[in-house]
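Quick one: Protein-export membrane protein SecF from Paramagnetospirillum kuznetsovii, structure tokens please.
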Amino acid sequence: MRLIDRILPHGTNYDFIRHRLIAFGITAILIVGSLTAIAVKGFNFGIDFAGGILIEAQSTTGPADLHTMRQALGNLGLGEVSLQEFGTSGRDVMIRVQRQDGDEKLQMAALGKVKATLGEGFTYRRVEIVGPKVGGELVRDGVLAVLLSLLAIALYVWFRFEWQFGVGALISTFHDVITTFGLFAITGMEFNLTTVAAVLTIAGYSVNDTVVEYDRVRENLRKYKTMSLYDLLNLSINETLARTILTVSTVFVTVLALLFFGGEVLHGFSVAMLWGLIIGTYSSVYVAMPMLVYFNLRTGKDRALDEEAAEPAP
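--- reply ---
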């Protein structure tokens, strides 16, 4: 017997649509909470967007002494300087220095002060300097990329199915994207270009899951012409449930590996992906599918009656 058959017996007929009002309430709370957190708290923009200096340093003499490093770098007069240890050796340190007022020469001068203060006991694996103009352009381009991806997804689903499916997929994907933004606003995790990549990946994953379920709905509309829309949606979800569980489980294990072994650079991406897997699966079942109930989607019986009415009288 396959593992999936043990977890999910054949012929499962759970009534998902019955809980649609509770799910809509949860969805409303998540969206409102996320928008409120974004408006009130905002994002902890990384160097990519805020500008400044990012340094990945590795101690060559043993574990790094963060306390001593903070005191030394804090006395340089460079503004906010944050240090964060990453990796398992205790020798790797991520150093962030706020953007200096002035041109690129002043940024390079600040970088030189940091290196001189740390001395010869460190090697530098990565150094990034981002100016305010570049950071502003990246913010604009990131927002534009997310908006265009949502629009393209809605147009694709609308073209492939019907307008009800397109609107449902758009609302579901918008829900996933906004709640992911809210997660970063609430937790204060660094928001950078890697996070934008994660958001776009989440949008693609979510719409893929939604399209699979919508495709089964379309098949069942032709197959079960007398079945009510309520029962047909439940049937479609249950028929695709095994595929959903297998897909989510496989990707979840992969992303967990990234989270634990991918290092500090991929931490935000991994957290966003884990959240996206959970919220994307939830929205496909409890947002995208129940929406069809309220969009007056015609059943197979309705379509047959329309075809009979369109036929010329003998």
